[in-house]
């Protein structure tokens, strides 16, 4: 009886977690975070606000996992294992959409090379110009995005490509994921 109760509780929590997940942003690569390794962000040296962050680490096409209805790529088996142990810790906020866009009331793509970790959570933004707006008031932007997320989360994921935006030229070199 006790095991059935625990199993029912776990299944109930899993269903609840899934019910609250929005559609993950997936671009033309077919991968979440455009094929970059979500765990690797937490291993990169984050720079102070106003400075350009290091480029995201490309994942490998042969090291992948499924989460939130999307395929994710990783640069190593170790990073894949870390992600699978706690995917909510490593997946970017707002299902990979631009944090500033969410604060302004819309879902737009997140550029994985325009990132910042705040209070242990990964946030992406769409263009360098938008990063400036977001970083001018990160706490205020996060308050607005949290308030808006409740109504935006269930909306369809963005279908736009962040690479197609002229302002993103120079924010990336090559593409991800990489072949082994």
TrEMBL record:
<protein>
    <recommendedName>
        <fullName>YHS domain-containing protein</fullName>
    </recommendedName>
</protein>
<dbReference type="InterPro" id="IPR007029">
    <property type="entry name" value="YHS_dom"/>
</dbReference>
<feature type="domain" description="YHS">
    <location>
        <begin position="57"/>
        <end position="93"/>
    </location>
</feature>
<keyword id="KW-0732">Signal</keyword>
<dbReference type="Pfam" id="PF04945">
    <property type="entry name" value="YHS"/>
</dbReference>
<feature type="signal peptide">
    <location>
        <begin position="1"/>
        <end position="21"/>
    </location>
</feature>
């Amino acid at each position: 009886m006790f095991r059935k109760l625990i199993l029912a509780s776990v299944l109930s929590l899993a269903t609840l977690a899934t019910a609250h997940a929005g559609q993950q942003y997936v671009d033309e690569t077919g991968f979440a975070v455009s094929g970059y390794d979500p765990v690797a962000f937490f291993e990169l040296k984050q720079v102070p606000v106003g400075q350009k962050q290091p480029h995201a680490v490309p994942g490998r096409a042969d090291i992948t996992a499924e989460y939130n209805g999307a395929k994710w790529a990783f640069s190593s088996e170790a990073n894949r294992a870390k992600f699978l142990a706690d995917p909510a810790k490593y997946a970017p906020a707002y299902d990979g959409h631009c944090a500033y866009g969410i604060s302004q009331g819309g879902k737009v793509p997140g550029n994985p090379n325009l990132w910042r970790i705040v209070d242990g959570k990964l946030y992406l933004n769409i263009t360098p110009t938008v990063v400036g707006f977001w970083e001018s008031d990160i706490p205020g932007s996060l308050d607005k995005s949290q308030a808006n997320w409740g109504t935006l989360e269930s909306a369809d994921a963005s279908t736009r490509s962040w690479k197609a935006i002229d302002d993103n030229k120079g924010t990336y070199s090559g593409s991800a994921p990489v072949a082994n």
